[in-house]
Amino acid sequence: MHVRNIGILAHVDAGKTTLTERILFATGMTHRTGEVHDGDTVTDFDPQERDRGITIFAAAVSCDWAGHRLNLIDTPGHVDFADEVERSLRVLDGAIAVFDGVAGVEPQSESVWRTADRYGVPRIAFVNKLDRPGADLDAAVASIRDRLEVTPLVVQLPIGREGDFAGVIDLVNDPPASAGAARQKLEEAVAELHPEALDHLDNMSDTTLKKAIRDLSVTQRAVVVLCGSAYRDKGVEPLLDAVVDYLPAPAGDPAKDLVALVFKRRERLTYLRVYDGTITKGDTVWDAGAGRTERIARILRVQADRHTDIDRAVAGDIVAVAGVKAARTGTTLSSRQRPVLLEAPRTAEPLVSVAVEARTRAGALKLPAALAALAGEDPSLTVRTDPETGQTLLSGLGELHLEVAVEKVRQTTGLELTVGRPRVSYREAVTGGVTGMLYRHVKQDGGAGQFAHVVLDVTPEPGTGFVFASTVTGGRVPAEYIRAVEAGCREALGDGPLGGHPVVGLRVTLTDGQTHPKDSSEMAFRAAGRFGLRSALRACTLTLLEPVAEVTVSAPSDALGAVLGDLAARRAQVTDSTVRTVTATVPLSELFGYATRLRSRTHGRGTFTSRPAGYRPAA
Q: Beta strands 123-128 and 94-100: pairing type?
């Protein structure tokens, strides 16, 4: 059977989960449609998702359409769960990007679009909710063109507007005569980008047009745009046809050696994408990164929280397996005879932390294992102990992310927990460097000694990265010791002199060094790099950076003054303002509890969205 592996991406409340429900119903996988507001959808099966009315965890489902198996992943739309989207996009071949027909491109829909760009995932766009007051396909398409910087190919027209929206007109397959001008406009747009279509511009057949559109979509030279209303079940079946027609099939050969990537762990199941080869129940596979074997006890076709046992999975499949003990997100599973390492999904750095403590002594003994298991499932969560207070700190991508994580621990373990106030993760940036910083690491304790002599230059580097270089000549420091110095420097970056925060924005250059014929080693030079950079940083000028977010606030015009005043009190820098919206860059620490404050200021009529916008000097 032919396969399509696709994700459903969007800003929160654009209608992703509702669309997934209608797809499952249209393909015969369900016999009734669930609703987000009723808490009975297939993919939002976690109790917290149903309570909160949002998608938190990426959920996979499979269905059949037109002789194709569609493996769908419904992804979260809230910015706090962007890493779930990242991990999903790493293993997908295509995606449906859902846009609100009133709002068009929103902040998080733009963010997930850029993530899909980075992974080279072809997309088709579905402009949803055309039955809502204010919905405008042309305006939504214009926002796709302008904000996402792509060429949209509109292949459908709506029948009716807003409350009178009744369906869609197909401009590719036998369009009615009344749509002749729109069909011609589509042909001309395709011909500008596709040479074969240009040759047939005077008399372009449906087959020629469809083939050219597919070529443009798969190569990402253009984006196919469809429209409809998932809630009213308008435009869903044509969208499924478009998935088959315009999104790529997975590459891969079932006869080759196994190559599969783990992209998600949930409880005792490991989710993976098979790129090459075949996995059979009972197989032993190789984790090349860790140098160990794993046994595949069961293979499961996933239907959200339900699973069906299958005997094997082949290239192109997305499945869950049981029995894998140690593999984590980003692990490559392959054959031992041909070990392979694939690029792992990126993991965002935590921005917010809370202190978590158990209320009982028995709970305190269980808490570390529970938090470790949580971080094992979600790599964007980290757990550490504060060296000053001894508190256990749970760090994540936002306030809601941490609320969900803590509640999951409560639900799965029954522990009574105390949670501290959220606090943001600061950074320390080098603004003034030092040169010629000499550090000698000498240690003699009766056995083999340690000797390493390094000279370091530390200079500011644009951005928030770290660059290491060496200008040592004449073999004064061997290459393996230079690598050890770099490793030691990287270790020193986690604990800056201003307040113990990670250090960013610097270049370290090893300019000279000395070795000892007996006592020098990689360990000694690693220690010299670590302690030498710490000494250098204490001599540098550093600035404290705080995380900021781009916030877009929507409110009635009569409440906008109060909104602007409140943002100013939160140290916001306003970048754009209209009669109903304000866009500003706001320190993340000032956004804790902002939703409640905004509702109060606007009598419940204001809403806001946010997304990370990097760091800036703390006031």
A: parallel
Query: CA–CA separation, 269 vs 298, rounded Å?
Result: 10
270 near 320, Cβ under 8 Å?
Answer: yes
Closest CA to 74 of 12, 30, 31: 12
For 567, the 3-state DSSP assignment is helix
Q: Which helix (H) or strand (E) holds 364?
A: helix 361-377
| Residue ranges, the chain, pLDDT below 70 | 1, 34, 36-40, 43-45, 446-447
Q: Which of 214, 221, 11, 229 is nearest to 137 (CA)?
A: 229
Greatest pairwise CA separation for the chain in angstroms: 94
Query: Each residue of 465-480: pLDDT tens digit?
Result: 899 999 998 889 999 9
DSSP per position, 386-438: -TTT--EEEEESSHHHHHHHHHHHHHHH---EEE---EE--EEEEEE-EEEEE
Q: What's the CA gap between 573 and 613, in Å, rounded?
A: 12
Alpha carbons 23 and 354: distance in angstroms, whole number: 39
The DSSP output letter for 28 is T
Continuous H helices in 194-252 = 195-199, 206-218, 236-246
Pairing of strands 312-314, 278-280: antiparallel
pLDDT in tens, 212-258: 999 999 999 999 999 999 999 999 999 999 999 999 999 889 999 99
Tell me how far apart the alpha carbons of residues 239 and 246 are, in angstroms, rounded to a whole number: 10
Block residue for tokens 């902002």: 594
Which residues, in sequence order, are bridge partners of residue 565? none
Looking at residue 37, its pLDDT comes to 61
DSSP state of 350: P
Pairwise CA distance, residues 416 & 421, whole Å: 17
Report how far residue 285's alpha carbon sits from residue 278's, in angstroms, rounded to the nearest whole number: 11
Q: Alpha-carbon distance 36 to 52, whole Å?
A: 10
3-state helix, strand, coil in the chain (%, to 5): 30, 35, 35
Interatomic CA distance for residues 496 and 466, integer angstroms: 14
Note the residue count of the chain: 619
Asked if 450 and 443 count as a contact pair (C-beta separation under 8 A), the reply is yes
Q: Are 563 and 596 in contact (CB under 8 A)?
A: no
121, 93 contact by CB (below 8 A): yes
Find the helix or strand (DSSP H, E) in which 145 lies: helix 137-148
- Separation of alpha carbons 563 and 498, rounded Å: 34
Q: H helices then E strands: how many in the chain? A: 15, 34
Distance CA 334, CA 385 (A): 36
State both tokens at 244.
Answer: 């088959």
